[in-house]
Amino acid sequence: MNAEQILEKIPAVAKEWASQREERQQRTKADPIDYETLRGIGVPLLAVPQEFGGTWQDLSRSSRTIGLMLRTLAQGDPSITLASSMHQGVLASWRVPTVPEPYNDAWQKQRSEVFATVTDGAWWGTIVSEPGSGGDTGKTRSMCIQESPESLKYRLSGQKHFGSGSGLTSFMTTRALPDGESTPDLFFMEVRGQPWDGTTGIRLAAEWKGHGMSSTNSHAFEFTNFPATRVAWPGHQAELMAGNGSLGGMSFTSVIVGVVDAAMDYTRNWLKTNLANGSSLRAFQQVEWTMAEQEAWLIDQAWESGMRSFENNTLDRRTVLLAKENVARLAASVLDRLCKLSGGTAYTKYSPLGTWLQDVRALGYLRPPWALAFDNMFNMSLEE
Which among 234, 262, 287 is the end of a domain? Predict the structure, then answer.
């Protein structure tokens, strides 16, 4: 199965999910069947390099496939699309082909083992954020204690939240401070089948209760001496994360663009139906719709700019961040306009627009939140 064959199957899944939209928007928990559906058509393999049995080639050739896949699926169900998108981002670290000696042998072994979990059916996710960090995942207070000298096996203790896909993923990456070191590093944990009552070192601290993206299972957990494995190139998380080329942020952005696509199509059909039935539009409604169309066009241009930064091999983090933040701002404006022109129905659960408004707001509040994102944009703007 190649990437094109997987992508061809995505619209049918999105259409089926969209037909269940009213029920899906009421959900507060993810349905494992949706993950099985995505696994069945090969979606997890999009993150795995071809030499390990997947479809991934490189950022320039594979990024748009992932972006289109997420943008299309989000038109059917933004929550499950966002939760499953974490898989595509976190595996990027192991797509780094080689690392310096004396680590490369261990690195190649770990890469092979990680990607083998995916071809065997595993989903990967991430749980890096911590309470009080302000969205800065480098400010972790979680600790990892090494089980024995020279071992990559550790024990993690600390609090984490926003673990999207909890209960559905088999493995989750995280960041923690290795005992005796001053810089956090990247770890991963096998979480499938683990009870959340604390008996094995993982306790559910709080269930996800989002205003939007309500069924992402982004729960919070407390870890106590929970088994974790350190990446086989220790102390180089920045270099490993750079292999992602900001695709994680662009993946989140693609989900939100898909919501805007769905909302515009829904409202356009609503307007056409009303006009065909003899209704007229007030001037305010005409202005709001025209403004929404303009902003939706700008959103599409921002998304294209981000995609092209990968295809042109520029790996321009600033372009991707600018695309993400402009989409975040404009998407909220588009959905607000569509709600206003639709009237009181948009404030009820009988219309999907109010839920979509809350869904798109997630992009500005998370990964990274507004304040941290603007700090980053300001600092990047002064770099040569």
Answer: 234
The Cα–Cα gap between 205 and 222 comes to 6
How far CA 276 is from CA of 99, 271, 353, in Å, comes to 63, 9, 21
* 240 inside domain: no
384, pLDDT greater than 80: no
The helix (H) or strand (E) run that includes residue 341 is helix 317-342
pLDDT digits 0-9 by tens, 178-188: 999 999 999 99
Which pLDDT tens digit goes with each residue over 87-108?
998 999 999 999 999 999 999 9
At 315 the pLDDT is 67
Question: Residue 218 pLDDT more than 90?
Answer: yes
CATH number at 216 reads 2.40.110.10
More confident residue, 305 or 384: 305
Specify the number of domains making up the chain.
Answer: 3
Dihedrals phi, psi of 197, to nearest 5 degrees: -100, 5
Please check whether residue 358 is in contact with residue 211, taking contact to mean a CB–CB distance below 8 angstroms.
yes
Alpha-carbon span 286 to 219, nearest angstrom = 41
C-alpha closest to that of 284 among 341, 324, 227: 341
Residue 206 CB: number of other CB atoms within 10 A? Answer: 13
Give me the mean pLDDT over the 297-306 stretch. Answer: 97
Q: To the nearest 10°, the Cα dihedral for 269, 274, 276, 278?
A: -170
